[in-house]
Every structure is written in C-alpha cells, then in structure tokens.
Design a protein that fits this description.
NOS_N, binds arginine, 391 residues, three-stranded antiparallel β-sheet, 32% helix, Nitric oxide synthase oxygenase, metal ion binding, 12% strand
Length: 391
C-alpha cells in the first residue's frame, strides 16, 4: 500500500462530513474528483490521473453525472467498507467481491439478484463477503430501493395478548409485507422468512418470496446442554444489509446489499438475547436451573455466556463461517495497525466496535479511535414508503 501523505488528503475526507451528504440529484464535482484522485493515489499502476479527471468532467458536463469504471466501482465499494466506523470486521476489506448489477433497476429483477447474492455469499457455508450494486441515482431516472433491512429477516406477529411471535425488530416490516399482499405460512412460526420488497418509481413494486433452499440456517445446539438443541432456535448464516445507501465519488447507489460473516455475539448477545428481540435469557436461565431470585446472582450473564457458546458451537458444527469476539477484536487491531502503516486514519465508533459481552476482556475496549467520517461510505436509508414505523 502506498501511504497517502496528509497534505494531499482529498478534500472530501475532511471538508465534507458524509452524514450531511444528501443526494440532490446533482453531482458534487469536488467529491467525484477527490474519489478519482484517491483511486489513483492508492493504485499508482493506473497511471496519471489527469486523463481520467478530464473524462469525468466532460461526462458530467454532458450528462449531469458520470459512470464509474469497473475498477472504480470495485475500489469504491471496498473503501466504503474500510471506512465503516461501526464494523469490527474490516481486516478483509480487500477481499470484498463486487457484483456489478448497475443495469438492473426493475424491482422484480433486483429481488431476483438479491437471491443470487445470497447464493454467492452463502457458498455452502464458507461465507464470502459480497456486495451487489444496483442502478445508481441519476438525474432523470429512478433508482430501486430495497425495503428490507437485510435480505433475510424473520417476521414478527403480534398476538392478541400483546406478545410477539418472531423477531419484534421486524414488526413494521412484517406489517408492510402484509399490507402489500404477503401471505404468511398457514402455521406462523418464530422464524418465518419475510419476502423481499423492492420499489422503484415508474415500476410495479415487487414482493418476492425467498425459497427455503436459498436460506442457509443453523439450528442451535449446546456442547453441554442437550435440551437446548430441542428448542427449535436457529439463525441464518448470512447477515446481508440491504437498505443502506452506498456513496462513491458523489454517486449514490441506494440499493447495494452487502454481507460479511457473523460474529457470534451479534446473534447470541443481541438478536436472541435482547429483551425487545427474542428475549431468550429468562427461559434459558430457568432451564439451566439458575437462581433467578436477584440480579446479583448474575443469572442473566451466565445464561448469556451459554447462549453464545451455543451459537459458536452450532455454526462450527454446521461448517458455517463465524468468528468469536476475542479473535475478531485482535483482527481489528491488526487492521488498524495496517491502516496506520499505510498512512491512513481508521475511523471507528467505540460503542459499536466493543463487543456486547466481555467488552473489557477484548483489546478493542482499552483505547480510543479516530472518529472522522470518510468517503466513500454507507449511509442509513430513509424509511420505506408506506412503512408505518421507522425500523
Ligand atoms: N448485527 C446484524 C445482525 O445481527 C448484522 C450486521 C452486519 N454483521 C456482519 N457480521 N457483517 O444480523
């Protein structure tokens, strides 16, 4: 890696906090230029930057936008990952496989390609980090938007008693699916996969079911508690965020689903444990026979550790890629050292990087991080149209 001297640090890296970058339909020429320069700085083999800059300027003057080369799209998507300050798993940012689907904008085709994304990423359990980039937002055309927060989301149904069956995080998304005509399974369960919902102005919205064969799931079992394996608890293998906007060199890609592999705590300490998600800890503690008469017995913590053991154990048994928070914390610090050695800042959000269990046992806890926001990057999507509650 060629170090980036700070005196030629692209303007957008300091002067344009990305959180304020909105898609106005007009290209920010300075941001486009900064990106092209950054690409050439980090890839000196590309030759002098002037020729490409002249092309980009001419294209913007003629059409109001420009089209990334395949190399720019690949570099931009990888750097957007590298700049994701909430992600602990960035060591492998260079390995991101970029699927160029910029010609695709019809909702049904986007949904179909999301399923293909899942197949490529799942790879029979040997998870590959993948991003699929769909049509960009361009003047005069409309870009597709995926309503699902992730390609795989489990439905949530509110019962008459006010309780929730399924993943309560997805109550609004489930409501939206039902409103758009989704027929849930005859027998509703806690792990019903929601259909993909994609919209694009000027097109019919799409609602596409994902076939069970395309969703690799891992049933939970525990190395010491056989009863845990009989509860029917499971999770999906691929976390693929599908509602964030990818921004590269002034161009917005509102649909660009991407995935890595799971760190166990995401499932064991959040999805299955949070009291507003699957809330499994009180049940597990009871089954473990723990003394739950007071918080001071640490029954929650003891159940939490066993749930996290179950997640790591089950994924390993099933041959599905996963990582634990100790290993991943060390890898993150390796990444940070490499970035610093390359002369780059590595922005990180402490509150997201520190794992939700045993924080102080991991080395990422015991330091502070740069907090400047860099471009390219991923940004939260606006809430889906017709979605009653933000999610
Ligand atoms: N935390 C989210 C989940 O539990 C996934 C976020 C992305 N995670 C990842 N390992 N790439 O589904």
């Amino acid at each position: 890696m060629t170090p980036v001297p700070t005196d030629v640090m692209p303007r957008s890296l300091s002067a344009h906090p990305p959180a304020q970058v909105e898609n106005t339909g007009e290209i920010d020429i300075a941001e486009a230029e900064d990106f092209v320069r950054q690409h050439h700085t980090e890839h000196p083999d590309l030759g002098p930057v002037e020729a490409r800059l002249a092309e980009v300027h001419a294209e913007i003057a003629a059409t109001g936008t420009y089209r990334h080369t395949t190399a720019e799209l690949t570099f931009g998507a990888r750097v957007a990952w590298r700049n994701s300050s909430r992600c602990i798993g960035r060591l492998y940012w260079r390995s991101l496989k970029v699927r160029d689907q910029r010609e695709v904008s019809a909702p049904a085709d986007v949904a179909k390609e999301c399923v293909e994304h899942l197949r490529v990423a799942t790879n029979k359990g040997k998870i590959r980090p993948v991003i699929t980039v769909f049509a960009p937002a361009e003047p005069g055309t409309h870009a597709p938007q995926i309503d699902n927060e992730q390609i795989i989301r489990y439905a949530a149904y509110r019962g008459t008693d006010g309780g929730v069956l399924g993943d309560a995080r997805n109550l609004a998304l489930t409501e939206l699916a039902l409103k758009r005509g989704w027929k849930p399974p005859a027998t509703r369960g806690p792990f019903d996969v929601l259909p993909l919902m994609v919209t694009c102005k000027g097109h019919e919205p799409a609602l596409v079911e994902i076939a069970a064969d395309d969703v690799l799931e891992v049933s939970l079992s525990h190395p010491d508690f056989p009863w845990l394996g009989t509860l029917g608890v499971k999770w999906h293998a691929v976390p693929a965020i599908s509602n964030m906007r990818l921004r590269i060199g002034g161009i917005d890609y509102p649909s660009a689903p991407f995935n890595g592999w799971y760190m166990g705590t995401e499932i064991g300490a959040r999805n299955l444990a949070d009291s507003d998600r699957y809330d499994l800890l009180p049940y597990l503690a009871k089954r473990m026979g723990l003394d739950m008469s007071s918080e001071a017995t640490l029954w929650r913590d003891r159940a939490l550790v066993e749930l996290n053991r179950a997640v790591l154990h089950s994924f390993a048994e099933a041959g599905v890629t996963i990582t634990d928070h100790h290993t991943e914390s060390q890898r993150f610090l390796t990444h940070l050292e490499r970035e610093e050695a390359a002369g780059r800042s590595c922005p990180a959000d402490w509150s997201w990087i520190v794992p939700p269990v045993s924080g102080g046992l991991t080395p990422v806890y015991h330091r502070y991080y740069d907090t400047d926001e860099l471009l390219p990057n991923f940004f939260p999507a606006s809430k889906p149209s017709g979605c009653p509650v933000a999610h």
